[in-house]
Amino acid sequence: MSDCLFCKIVAGDVPSDKVYEDEKILVFRDIAPKAEVHLLLIPKEHIESLNELSALEDSVVLHMMQQLPLLAAMAGIGDGYRTIINTGQRGGQVVFHLHIHLMGGGKLPGF
Ligand code: AMP
What is the pTM of this model? Predict the structure, then answer.
């Protein structure tokens, strides 16, 4: 999608602090971190949000989930981390390209 910020990051048209990439996903540091470590995992293909998922995306979503523990370990937070997916404006989603926030470091506050 041409006006999607995260698609532009995937395409390399907007710079990012990339920490991991494979054929299905890209992982980069959040520009405004809310924890010592704050990464964003995104599918390379444009999926607007959890609400737009279909069976077609099964493999990429499973891949994202399976990479989380590895990425957390790589970022030094393998012993404890938080994952968040905001969905829709009322759920706090600002960028409408599916992403998982991966956060940790120090002691995260409770909800
Ligand atoms: P959400 O509110 O779940 O849509 O989260 C969007 C996240 O993207 C926020 O935590 C922003 O700080 C982050 N963000 C926005 N623009 C960029 C960017 N250019 N590079 C990295 N992270 C970004």
Answer: 0.97
Q: What are phi and psi of 32, to 5 degrees?
A: -130, 75
Instruction: Pick the catalytic residue from 38, 97, 99, 101.
Output: 99
Taking only the tens place, the pLDDT of each residue in 55-103 is 989 999 999 999 999 999 999 999 999 999 999 999 999 999 999 999 9
Residue 90 lies in a domain: yes
pLDDT value, residue 1: 64
Q: Is residue 43 part of a domain?
A: yes
Q: Whose CA is nearest to atom 20 of ligand 1?
A: 31
User: Is residue 73 one of the residues assigned to a domain?
Assistant: yes
CATH number (domain holding residue 25): 3.30.428.10
Distance 30 CA to ligand 1 centre (A): 6
User: What Å distances lie between residue 52 and 4, 47, 48, 58, 98, CA to CA?
Assistant: 15, 7, 6, 12, 9
Q: Does the pLDDT of residue 111 top 90, yes or no?
A: no
Atom of ligand 1 nearest to the CA of 9: 19
Q: Is 46 a known active-site residue?
A: no
The residue segments making up the domain with residue 19 are: 5-104
Residue 40 per-residue DSSP state: E
